[in-house]
Amino acid sequence: MKNWIPGRVTLACDALKAAVKGKKIALMMNTSALTNDGRLLLDVIVGEKWADVGFLFGMEHGVRGNMFAGDPNIGHLDEKTGLPVVSLYDYEGYIPPTDKIREVDAVVFCAQDVGVRHWTYTPWLITLVKSCAEAGREVIVLDRPNPIRGDIVEGGCAETFCWGYDLLAGFDYPLRHGMTIGELALMYNEEKKIGAELTVLPMENWNREMWYEDTGLVWLPPSPNMPTVETALYFAAAGLMQGSNYSLGIGTTTPFRFVGAPDFDGDLLADELNALGLDGVYFVQKYYQTRVYGREGLTLCSGVMMCIHDRNIWRPVTTQLHIMDTINRLFPEQVNFERSGIQARMRMGTHVICDKLARHESLVPVIENWQAEAERFAVRRRPWLLY
After folding, report:
1. Which pLDDT tens digit goes with each residue over 63-82?
2. Which site in 29, 51, 163, 240 is 20 to 30 Å from 346, CA atoms measured?
3. Cα 314 to Cα 148: distance, rounded to the nearest angstrom
């Protein structure tokens, strides 16, 4: 890439090359793991023979992003490198198997987080740290930016009952955690006394006030439903509702930006949400077509579109609780927040939200409690901040 202009932030790729030299390793990464010049890190490590690579761990969407989530064919031979791909979906709890890890000296992890707790790649890293500790092998993390800033923390911490469940919560950290993957791995390993031989290779020139586009790094969608960096903010404002029976616009060109259903009154919903005067966001009524749970083909939905006018002051997690609260008040007979069963509660990290919604009680006390929890976590996380 002769015309590539380096960005302000630099990933520690040279340090990674030195760290794996002479070792037999496994790679746990996907298409979001790019080098500073935008090449797929997996292909660089293998092609330039940085180390003896034994196998690849396949996470959601596969190592090359060419598969549906949970696709049974994730385990196969990688068509470009010829290396075996070990599907983590083949193991109970999707936990990296210690017997495979013992075949190598170290496992290298790199995947783009989106700054939201229930994004599966980062909880997968947490399970890897524990598995490597049990196997007595090193885990090496090539750190990457938090795309929605590292200085803002929102939401309550996941409660113990959902740690590790279905990759929706690694341990007790908030919904919008404001940390990097490396920092979370360090925090988990040291705070929970896991005892893994953990090496985190930090970035250069990243600071906590940066949005992803400030870094100069290439953004490659880590999931089909995360096409842009802005989508990560909408995910922070709608992701908890993925277990509901209404639509979040998944399948449209702007997933998680819409909230609606065939039988919602979008004008009423927009008016009620705008009356709350939430900082940094405005809601407009919107018709859109998408797939809706329980219906065949595309369905016309009426709802709202979130329009960010100041992302620096917008608090998407707080907005999300207000959206659920308002929908429950306006359309109580039309909504089911637990269509996906226990997974809905695991995603929220608590029983409190669903319990209150079921009793048609306000979520305002949850908002206040979560703000206090976020403030406590902002202090608790300090020993593990690298930047």
Report:
1. 998 887 777 678 788 989 99
2. 29
3. 11
The sign of the dihedral angle between the CA atoms of 254, 260, 262, 264 is negative
The identity of residue 240, as a single letter, is: L
Report percent pLDDT > 90 for the chain: 89
Rounded to the nearest 10 degrees, the angle between the axes of helix 266-274 and helix 316-330 is 130
Distance CA 241, CA 353 (A): 11
In this structure, the number of other CB atoms found within 10 A of the CB of residue 69 comes to 14
Q: Which of 262, 361, 271, 286 is nearest to 321 (CA)?
A: 361
Contact status, residue 140 vs residue 108, Cβ threshold 8 Å: yes
Report d(CA 127, CA 309) in Å as an integer.
37
Alpha-helical segments (H) within the chain: 13-20, 41-47, 98-101, 121-135, 181-191, 229-238, 266-274, 316-330, 342-348, 352-358, 364-380
Q: pLDDT confidence of 1, banded at 50, 70, 90?
A: very low
Distance CA 224, CA 226 (A): 6
pLDDT beyond 60 at 139 = yes
Sheet holding 298-308, edge to edge: 258-261, 298-308, 281-291
Rounded CA-CA distance 193/187 in Å is 9
pLDDT at 22 over 90: yes
Q: How confident is the model at residue 31 (pLDDT cuts 50, 70, 90)?
A: very high
**How big is the CA angle at 285 (ends 289 and 270), to the nearest 5 degrees?**
130
Average pLDDT, the chain: 94
Give residue 220's identity as a one-letter amino acid code. Answer: L
Q: What contacts 369, CB < 8 A, 6 or more positions away? A: 156
Edge-first strand order for the sheet with 76-77 is 76-77, 84-87, 52-58, 24-29, 106-110, 138-142, 197-201
